[in-house]
Amino acid sequence: MFGFERKKAVMPTAESALAGREQPIATAKLHYVYDRPLTAEPAEGYERAMFGLGCFWGAERLFWKLDGVYLTMVGYSAGYTPNPTYEEVCTGGTGHNEVVLVIYDPQIVSYGDLLVHFWENHDPTQGMRQGNDIGTQYRSGLYIYSNEQKQEAIESKQAFQRALAQSGLGTITTEIIAAKDFYFAEGYHQQYLAKNPDGYCGLGGTGVSCPVGLPIHVSDA
């Protein structure tokens, strides 16, 4: 068991990654909470952001509750295997992270606000794990769609690292890289904790506040 967990926590190479498939796997058509068509492309006036912060069930719920968020969806990114399945990602053989893609209205909630929510709701110092969830698919990651997002992400990481250091906590391991292809997870994963309110959520923050951004409003949805 120990050896298996160690293997899952080591990134494969492009050459050693699983082959995957040409066709996307089936997913949900509508957002279970918002009752809107589930699409990864933002409409005019909206923007998108992608986050990895542990099991994507709990990560998605964190964001769909925020005012100004129009859509959330979970999937796989930052790896090598095209159109992977959940079972393939869980082997550690695809290199993908479990991610949540957020479509939001920047007039209501800023990218900086989303970053605060990201930093404060998981522990970004744990490397290839989040709590009891061990593997490359649980790593902390910010996946960037613009130079502006990159700059904000870097500055917020620096600010939160200073706050962690002042509290005697560890070094951030969050990767900040350009967003790669987003592959939808299977339909049953989409808005999983809305369908299964008592389902598993392994997220937990450090208890440290991120000293950037504005107050974030959380809806009752």
Shape: globular
Order of helices and strands: HEHEHEHEEEHEEH
Rg calc: 16 Å
Task: Could you tell me the CATH topology label.
Answer: Peptide Methionine Sulfoxide Reductase, Chain A
Average pLDDT over all residues: 94
What is the helix fraction of residues, given as a range?
A: 10-25%
For the sheet with most strands, the description reads: 6 strands, mixed
Sheet with most strands: strand arrangement: 7-6-1-3-2-8
Q: Please report the distance between the alpha carbons of the first and last residues.
A: 39 Å
The strand count comes to 8
The total count of helices amounts to 6
| Percentage beta strand | 15-25%
- The CATH architecture designation is 2-Layer Sandwich
Main CATH class: Alpha Beta
The structural class is alpha+beta
* Spans where pLDDT lies below 50 across 5 or more residues: 1-6
- Classified in CATH, the superfamily is Peptide methionine sulphoxide reductase MsrA
Structural domain count: 1
EC number: 1.8.4.11
Domain Peptide methionine sulphoxide reductase MsrA: 49-201
Active site: 55
Pfam families: PMSR
